[in-house]
Amino acid sequence: MSSLALMRWLEATPERYDAGMRLVTFGRVDRLHEALAAAVPEGARVLEVGCGTGAVTRRLVARGAQVTALDQSPEMLEQARRRLADAPGAPPAWLEQTAAEIDTLPEAAFDAVVMSLCLSEMSRDERSYVLRTALDRLRPGGSLLAADEVIARRPDRRILHALLRGPQWLLGWLIAGSVSQPVPDLAAEVAAAGYGVRRETRWLAGSLALVQAERVS
Amino acid sequence: MSALSALGGLVRDVLQTAFRLAPWPTATGLRVVGSPGPDSPVLLTANYDFTVRHVIRALRGCDVWLVVAPAKGINVWCAAGAGHLTTHQVVTALKTSGVADRVNHRDVILPQLAATGVEGLQVFRRARWRVRFGPVRAADIPDYLATGGVKSDAMRRVEFGLRDRLEMAAVWAAPVSLLVGGLTWVFRPVWALPLALLATILAVAVFLVYDQLPGPRQLLLGAGGALASVAVVAVAGGGLPALAAALLAPFALVALLTFDYAGSTPTEGSGGFDGQDWKIRLDPERCEGVYSCFEVCPEAVYEKHEGSRRVELAHDERCVRCGACVVQCPKDALFFEDGQGGRIEPATIRQFKLNLAGKRTVAVPPPPEEQKSA
């Protein structure tokens, strides 16, 4: 079958995932999670796509949100469940599903959709489908909060990012077991899916973006 | 242009064979092979560049839609076993690739070895596509399609012939030779090339003869290698330190090359899992002769009994514990039994795949109460 060494790296990922993300983002991932959660109105009905180990979920629940959190990895969900076991607030509804399967959720049933660092793990086709499908899950006026790795706009920052990318890629693969391609222009893809983009915030020399958008009609 | 792309293909073949232990992702989504129409078959595979290129090559002359599913750039069997090619990735690919708009049917053919990770029934429930598991090898797909989906016994079996053995030898020889040669280069440049060569020769020997050797296999092969390299050093007049190194190096290399030999072959279950003492078990009361186990077993463990509409575990000694039969059985008639007689339920295998076999990320859930008391 396969090499044991490779399998070990691949499969031991959920515990390492958080540490790995912190390392490859130079610790900015925590600030990103704070900003994401703060942008969600208190008590909102939230759909979180790709909840991973529940780092954002925990912050959302602490703000009184009713969260439907989905992830395709049973191991990640297991970590998230454990992390939120004693958290105050309404326990989230956990779904073992892929992002593309949000088409089975009711339409206009959420005040906010949160996607943290999951769009960059998808192909362009998948992103387009997931963003369009998520739009229909939002009530009119509901908001999308999408955060991900992007390509910096300024040339000097692109060069800096390219230099950091190699070691980052290796670290990401070894520690988090996941390697992602940055989304070229997250805000543009969100707009192309039919949202009204309200705001874009960037960190890490312009390579990490938080896009806040809205279902206009 | 075509000569250039052929050269590119060759370079990629060599690199991807030598460094197969690393992922080689390729773009996911829909590929058009030939001139397919709305009635043409839909095939699906993992986004492992080597596989996708070879499937397309094997399909020359066929008109099919090929859906490339996200599997982290890992080959089908490993991805399915490690939980990277599961129902989720298949559902994602079927929903987002746009293939549903191109065809007027909902039948998708998956590689047989995906059956370890992908639940056919779940794909239907979640995406309304019917899954059939096709042949193990891409080369058999044209025949399989031409006969309207008849799978011969040979198409179902995983082989470990000369070619496969040499391929696996290359997979291990490349990184090990580079590592050993590179490290030696730093300290003793003269020894770098001979040692790298020794690693390559031993890798080939491991994959050609190792499973034929009587025990203790590692020791025998190491001793053979040591004898040969000592002779070479003696003839070359290398002196005492060189002789000592020639005596020790083959044993170290054989240990390095065989530490997961079983897991690198399709004929033995990986030695690194706690599940190596697991036995496949059949609950004959539950079996209703659906024969999905028969269809997906790569080792021909099962025999059909048409009269009684049951299967029989005729060759369980051949089982490599890939779990495909357990995952696919719609009647939950198959399960694993561990060394202590404990039962590992199909639901557990389906959820955690081979992760569970290694107990690396999750603990084996305790059996339900009623089974404990039964």
Task: Walk me through this protein's architecture.
The complex is a heterodimer of chains A (217) and B (374). With 217 residues, chain A is an alpha/beta fold. Chain A has helices at residues 4-11, 13-24, 28-38, 55-62, 74-84, 124-137, 155-176, 186-192, and strands at residues 45-49, 66-71, 93-96, 110-116, 138-149, 196-203, 208-214. Chain A has a seven-stranded mixed sheet with strand order 3-2-1-4-5-7-6, with helices on both faces. In chain A, helix 2 (13-24) packs antiparallel against helix 7 and helix 3 (28-38) runs parallel beside helix 4. Chain A is globular and about 45 Å long. Chain A starts with a helix and ends with a strand. Residues 1-11 of chain A have low confidence and may be disordered. Chain B has 374 residues and is of the alpha/beta class. Chain B folds into three domains: 3-156, Rossmann fold (3-Layer(aba) Sandwich), CATH 3.40.50; 162-264, no CATH class; 279-373, Alpha-Beta Plaits. Chain B is 48% helix and 11% strand. Chain B is built from 16 helices and ten strands. Chain B has helices at residues 2-18, 49-58, 76-82, 87-96, 120-127, 141-146, 153-156, 162-187, 189-209, 217-236, 240-257, 261-264, 292-296, 324-328, 346-358, 369-373; strands spanning 29-33, 42-46, 64-69, 107-110, 130-133, 279-282, 302-305, 310-313, 334-337, 343-344. In chain B, strands 1-3-2-4-5 form a five-stranded mixed sheet, with helices on both faces. In chain B, strands 6-9-10 form a three-stranded antiparallel sheet. In chain B, strands 7-8 form a two-stranded antiparallel sheet. In chain B, helix 4 (87-96) packs parallel to helix 5 (120-127), helix 8 runs antiparallel to helix 9 (189-209) and helix 9 (189-209) crosses helix 11. The model of chain B is unreliable at 356-374 (pLDDT under 50). Chain A binds chain B through residues 1-8, 10-15, 72-75, 78, 97-101, 103-104, 122-123, 125-126, 128-130, 178-179, and chain B through 21-23, 27-29, 70, 72, 74-75, 77-78, 81-84, 86, 88-89, 91-92, 95-98, 126, 259-260, 263-266, 269-272, 320, 322, 351-352, 354-355, 358, 360-362.
